[in-house]
UniProtKB/TrEMBL annotation, chain A:
Substrate binds at residues 289-296, 339. This is 6-phosphofructo-2-kinase/fructose-2,6-biphosphatase 4. GO terms for molecular function: 6-phosphofructo-2-kinase activity; ATP binding; fructose-2,6-bisphosphate 2-phosphatase activity. The keyword Nucleotide-binding applies. SUPFAM superfamilies: P-loop containing nucleoside triphosphate hydrolases, Phosphoglycerate mutase-like. GO terms for biological process: fructose 2,6-bisphosphate metabolic process; fructose metabolic process. The active site is at 290 (tele-phosphohistidine intermediate), 359 (proton donor/acceptor). In the C-terminal section; belongs to the phosphoglycerate mutase family. GO terms for cellular component: cytosol. Keywords: ATP-binding, Hydrolase, Kinase, Multifunctional enzyme, Nucleotide-binding, Phosphoprotein, Transferase.
TrEMBL record, chain B:
In the C-terminal section; belongs to the phosphoglycerate mutase family. Substrate binds at residues 259-266, 309. CDD domains: HP_PGM_like (cd07067). SMART domains: PGAM. One of its GO terms (cellular component) is cytosol. Transmembrane segments: none annotated. GO terms for molecular function: 6-phosphofructo-2-kinase activity; ATP binding; fructose-2,6-bisphosphate 2-phosphatase activity. This is 6-phosphofructo-2-kinase/fructose-2,6-biphosphatase 4. Keywords: ATP-binding, Hydrolase, Kinase, Multifunctional enzyme, Nucleotide-binding, Phosphoprotein, Transferase. It comes from Falco tinnunculus. GO terms for biological process: fructose 2,6-bisphosphate metabolic process; fructose metabolic process. Pfam families: 6PF2K, His_Phos_1. InterPro entries: 6Pfruct_kin, 6Phosfructo_kin, His_Pase_superF_clade-1, His_PPase_superfam, P-loop_NTPase, PG/BPGM_mutase_AS.
């Protein structure tokens, strides 16, 4: 990461708040920008510690590599078809990207669909189908090549290699590929024998697959079951003895139990923790903001105001809405700011207050209008428009900081079932970006209007969103990015997108 | 549940600044604070394993961690109950499977311990009890599980399985030779007796089985953390316990804690802010660099906060370091950059409330020590994963970290002494932590304010300021 220099000024004499600092997340990106550190970073040569060879023929353990302090990680999915590998791949990728670890998934089935335009039948997957085997191997290698490009040339940190990888031989090939390129390899295996689960998976994600676009549901199911059979004979599950030197997690029966072996580093530890907390039980997550507040009306940001008259009306409407939804065992969470708690109070049910759900801290700009910010801090205002995700208010926070502090909320949301989260604009944008897989550039501009509930329901590989406006008017608090973000811009250009207020 | 026809009014708690509903002037229930993981029914953690497998090490460490994050936890070591009952330990023969007298006493101890567990969880507001004994037979575990069910506890088993003779030998040296049981024996005698003690258990040992025990909630730790088998994690607290247990290790290492060098605001007796180092602070940074060099620490990681003064300090070391925003000093909100005299003048009520309960007190628009602990939890977790680390941080932050390592309760935490220009070297040993305090011989102001005698909100200013340390 290159430090920003101003006329040979020592880094520390600059305004620290302008450093794009990742704090905790610095663990993934090596260390923060200091001159000495950057030099060390690019020139460091690391000798791999003497370690056991997982497979014969792996490179010598004392090979010298040029790499960042934290090597890229290659996650390798393992399992029969319809065991949730792609579900896990996509979810894990989404989570890692959200917490700031550049991650990409590589679905070998997708490479196959791109190469073999039309899927005919399960016979493609028969173990003695020479042509099929050749094509499938070609796809795997093409995917691995893209993995290499992503991790070694495009600054990716984690690649998720999504394929069955059911034989030890195939896994050995991938492991060697990882070693040659200086990646740490971590296997994620999903083992499931429950026929109901497998049938449900097929309905959820296979029937709608491009492979079966011209088939009836019955035809598709029948073909897919035969496809699974093609893999069963050669399936070599990760073995406690034979694979004892590999790093892996084996997920059994959709998370009833886990076998975890040789977790090597921080990112693997986080991945394991995440995988052990997710579940597939159907449920919905409701996100909304507090009711309109007194400061909202005045166009002021932050503070700890109470609800306006309309805000209190919204709280009552929310109570009615929640009642009508008839949600089983709903948990209600709020921040520790008065306006969310007032909103929850109207529901008449128990709720939990989370300090980490508090609105973004605008530091010196707390309780100001945008006009006042432009007047008093025109430079800050412009910098914020230039990079709203990373911009940190003086003595305040950035969206990037928010994501960090919201991570435990996401983890607990994954563990829970039906939850209503009553929070704030910036906080809701962060949570929404996680569920809808929105990248950092879009996150701070997601629309989260007052008095509108978003109902999120996991479906297939993603999330269905329903937006329910509860019919109580409120001010608009959404400020779009203006065209002119130059620090030398005139005030009118800065304020052109400020929404109306008292 | 039907919505209330009228939402209750909210009042802000003056100490913690949290909004609470009240009915007719009295605080009402209904809202819970998530400062920590809330446990609904109490949890009974049951250790399982042969002697010298690290059960007590894990029990104590886990108890320390849970208490630090705010979950009231207590461990119950059945061996200790036995030592209290049978004054003098004679030999391994006490543990022979056919020693009727021995079996009677041991069962009595287990029941006494369980009774204390029940009292702690059901009468004393404990949230988690750790039942530390071998519990190596399925029958014994069933008894305990039923006990848990009868009392409405969730039971979670933690088994430690290890066959590596080197590890077992090392454990015996670390914690058994010094045990009260062997106070009159030579090391060789003690080791020999203890090995025979382990043998007494082996024949009847029934490890947690994937099939037979498939309905239990447990984690099986194998070979000191090389691998884990986790089954049926039921709730948040079990998930956190599993995550913690999977991150700890026993590799010898040291953790170095220190504050930034003296800052310009320190000199003036002002709190918070983002000042740079004073002249003496810069000197300290150089001394720290020299000290670190002389220590010759293998693969030392250096962490700082994102405040200028810690970064300046780290810069002098000339090695890579990582900045953590969560290591930033406690946010004093409206009191940032004030002297204590100014706080007393402008916010006398706040100043008094803080002295009344320094751990829970939250500055207006700021934080409390309790908040700090929450935000430092990922640091502790990563410190557990790492080996040699130097953390350059701040007074309140260092107090929180130190309280974790030295198992200091919330009441003492905000008053732990963490003076400037002093490095604390923490080295895990046996069941605890050895502390070495190294003053690096560069003078600095004292920033430690003791709790004054008079904490009444009506106290005169002199009473409030009597313990303020000297400054410019």
């Amino acid at each position: 990461m290159k430090p920003s220099h101003k006329n040979n000024q020592s880094l520390l004499e600059q305004d620290i708040t302008n450093l794009s600092s990742l704090g905790f997340l610095g663990l993934y990106h090596g260390f923060q920008a200091t001159d000495a550190a950057v030099e060390k970073q690019t020139c460091c040569r690391i000798t791999l510690p003497r370690k056991r060879r997982a497979y014969q023929g792996t490179p010598p353990a004392d090979q010298v590599l040029l790499c960042m302090t934290n090597c890229p990680t290659l996650i390798v999915m393992v399992g029969l078809p319809a065991r949730g590998k792609t579900y896990i791949s996509k979810k894990l990728t989404r989570y890692l990207n959200w917490i700031g670890v550049p991650t990409k998934e590589f679905n070998v089935g997708q490479y196959r669909r791109d190469l073999v335009k039309k899927y005919k039948s399960f016979e493609f997957f028969l173990p003695d189908n020479e042509e099929g085997l050749k094509i499938r191997k070609r796809c795997a290698l093409a995917a691995l090549n893209d993995v290499r490009q992503y991790l070694s040339e495009e600054n990716g940190h984690v690649a998720v290699f999504d394929a069955t990888n059911t034989t030890r031989e195939r896994r050995e090939t991938i492991y060697k590929f990882g070693e040659e390129n200086g990646y740490k390899t971590f296997f994620v295996e999903s083992v499931c024998v429950d026929p109901e689960v497998i049938a449900a998976n097929i309905v959820q994600v296979k029937l709608g697959s491009p492979d079966y676009v011209d088939c009836s549901n019955d035809e598709a199911t029948e073909d897919f079951m035969k496809r699974i059979e093609c893999y069963k004979n050669s399936y070599e599950t990760l073995d406690e003895t034979l694979d004892k030197d590999l790093s892996y997690i084996k997920i059994m029966d959709v998370g009833r139990s886990y076998l975890v072996n040789r977790v090597m580093d921080h990112i693997q530890s986080r991945i394991v923790y995440y995988l052990m907390n997710i579940h597939v039980t159907p449920r919905s997550i409701y996100l909304c903001r507090h009711g309109e507040s007194e400061l909202n009306l005045k166009g002021r940001i932050g503070g700890d105001p109470g609800l306006s008259v309309r805000g209190k009306e919204f709280a009552k409407s929310l109570a009615q809405f929640i009642n009508e939804q008839n949600i089983k065992d709903l948990k209600v969470w709020t921040s520790q700011m008065k306006r969310t708690i007032q909103t929850a109070e109207a529901l008449g049910v128990p709720y939990e207050q989370w300090k980490v759900l508090n609105e973004i801290d605008a530091g010196v700009c707390e309780e100001m209008t945008y006009e006042e910010i432009q007047e008093n801090y025109p430079l800050e205002f412009a910098l914020r428009d230039q990079d709203k995700y990373r911009y940190r208010y003086p003595k305040g926070e950035s969206y990037e900081d928010l994501v960090q502090r919201l991570e435990p909320v996401i983890m607990e949301l994954e563990r829970q079932e039906n939850v209503l989260v009553i929070c704030h604009q910036a906080v809701m944008r962060c949570l929404l970006a996680y569920f809808l897989d929105k990248p950092a550039e879009q996150l701070p501009y997601l629309k989260c209007p007052l008095h509108t509930v978003l109902k999120l329901t996991p479906v297939a590989y993603g999330c269905k969103v329903e937006s329910i406006f509860l019919n109580v008017e409120a001010v608009n608090t959404h400020r779009d990015k203006p065209e002119n973000v130059d620090i030398s811009r005139p005030p009118e250009d800065a304020l052109v997108t400020v929404p109306a207020h008292q």
